[in-house]
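Take just one protein record:
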Amino acid sequence: MAARIYQRPKSAMQSGKARTDDWVLEFEQSEARKADPLMGWTGSGDTQAQVSLSFPTKEAAKAYTEKYGITARVHATPPKSLKLQAYADNFR
């Protein structure tokens, strides 16, 4: 079983920082998705891909994977950079 651990990014529709401190563990798909011949929807028999676990810290997520023998990759959070500029700069 393979999984990935990452910090939830801020949504484009979100101005606040709610739920951005949580770390998420998601399992990777073990089988390919296929189209349903009747409806045309895509799906697979892999139910682990639907599971998403939330942890308060990265260390807690790592401890969970070690406890249950899950191989996990940790995706680093990109650094946050703010571009501070004044409103008057729009009219230069």
Summary: The radius of gyration is 19 Å. The longest strand covers residues 2-7. The mean pLDDT is 88. Strands lie at 2-7, 23-27, 34-35, 42-43, 52-55, 71-74.
